[in-house]
Amino acid sequence: MSQLPLPKTVRLGRDGPSFAPLSWGMWRFAGRSRADAAALVHAALDAGITLLDTADIYGFDGTSGFGDAEALLGEVLAAEPGLRDRMVLATKGGIRPPLPYDQSPAYLAEAIDASLRRLKVERIDLWQIHRPDILAHPQETARALDAARVAGKIGEVGVSNFTQLQIAALGAFIGRPIATTQPEISPLRIDCIENGELEQATVLGLVPMAWSPLGGGRLAEPATAREKAVAAALDAVANDRGVSRTVAAYSWLMAHPAGIVPIVGSQQAERIAEAARALTVQWTREEWYAVLVASRGEKLP
């Protein structure tokens, strides 16, 4: 049976840093001690997972905690400055409770500066618009992001939860090509695989970063017939390769030629380290399509 290529190193933008096609997300990072937080950062970096993805909204509980995840990571970096050079630092902004979204030039500048202060760094490698602001003109948004990049505050620009047309609109005005897109992709959420989003990413040179790659935990405890079918298709490969279903799910995404980078959401050091095994799992076409068929719930035409 034909083997799909193993995932390759990914480059951020045209000339940015390279990193393994797996990242660690910090949505549930806030609320722990600095020592515990540092242990998680070390777990990711030691496993070869060097892109760390956070956001200013992470830690917000609806009333308080805005910026807490960034601030905690900033404490870790201040205590161990050498860690900064080992990572590709990514964060997001543009969600502004209770608006909820704001990509006006003034707020973008404010949000980027605030993230820099909380993270205690001079530059963010990848700054992403977290969700699109329908009321923001893409030309004005592009100007604000270009200004931050020229000022050396950010390296590359990415988007999260943008449609294909929203990506094209921002891309038409921005001075430097958009580097990443962050949609929800998992073996249970295959919209991007079938609606052209990944093809657009390939054409434009965007790195697709998959949030919720385990289907919001549903792959761990499948309940519906469809979820159980997908889990069984993943288990067939996991059992054969001696890995967990979680690792199989990550590697299934990474086998796509668009170069999907799953965002590992676990806040357990051993699970973060385990995720790196996905870099070594190779799929056959037959195995890969079996998962897709199970997710679709019908045979391919």
From TrEMBL:
Q: Mind telling me which residue stretches traverse the membrane in this protein?
A: none
> Which SUPFAM superfamilies does the annotation name?
NAD(P)-linked oxidoreductase
Q: Matching InterPro entries, A to Z?
A: AKR_Detox_Biosynth, NAD(P)_OxRdtase_dom_sf, NADP_OxRdtase_dom
Superkingdom, natural source: Bacteria
A Pfam family that this protein carries is: Aldo_ket_red
Instruction: One GO cellular component term, please give it.
Output: cytosol
Q: Which residues form the NADP-dependent oxidoreductase domain?
A: 22-289
For this entry, the protein name equals Putative oxidoreductase
| Species lineage | Bacteria, Pseudomonadati, Pseudomonadota, Alphaproteobacteria, Sphingomonadales
